[in-house]
Amino acid sequence: MNSQRKSLLPSAKGHHMIGKYLKTRRIRALSAFWFVAVGMLVIGQAEAQSVKIVGIGASSCQYFLRETSGKPDVEKNFFAWAQGYMSGLLLRAPPGKDEDLDLAPDVYPLLKQAEFLRSFCTRNPDSDFSDGVNDLYRTLRAPPS
Q: Which residue range is the domain that position 28 belongs to?
């Protein structure tokens, strides 16, 4: 009877092999996890870089300056696009980021924001209008000086 009981219990060699097997599986699982995580990060960054901006704000600064010269109604259209675009940026911000951001603060009223965009495009005619809007958004995020 005693010999049967011994055969049911794993030997010291068996414990070592089981431990080695579990350790190998754990390493493989962690490796697979990190491979997938890094892959998703790279894919996420590639997708973020390939976003296509559409609408009137996807125009070049040269186009913006030419089309808005002496035409306040056209400039209002561009600015309305800019406000919508920045609102979209605000909505897509991760939790805890930009939650209290005011897109029309008293220290940076809408007319001053419109001037910011005109000035940006005058200085950077080869840039896109949306680049100026991104710059304005970063400016609004900065603490007032």
A: 11-49
Number of domains in the chain: 2
79 burial (CB, 10 Å; 0-12 / 13-18 / 19+) is buried
What percent of the chain stands above pLDDT 70? 63
Position 130 scores a pLDDT of 97
Closest CA to 110 of 89, 80, 132: 80
pLDDT digits (tens, 9 = 90+) for 71-81: 999 999 999 99
CB contact set of 108 (below 8 Å; sequence gap of 6+): 139, 140, 144
Please check whether residue 23 lies inside any domain of the structure. yes
Task: Report the alpha-carbon distance of residue 85 to residue 73 in Å, rounded.
Answer: 18
**Is 42 in the same domain as 90?**
no
63 and 131 together in one domain: yes
| pTM score over 0.70 | no
Report the C-alpha gap between 12 and 20 in whole angstroms.
Answer: 12
Q: Are residues 94 and 32 in the same domain?
A: no
- Residues belonging to the chain: 145
pLDDT greater than 50 at residue 84: yes
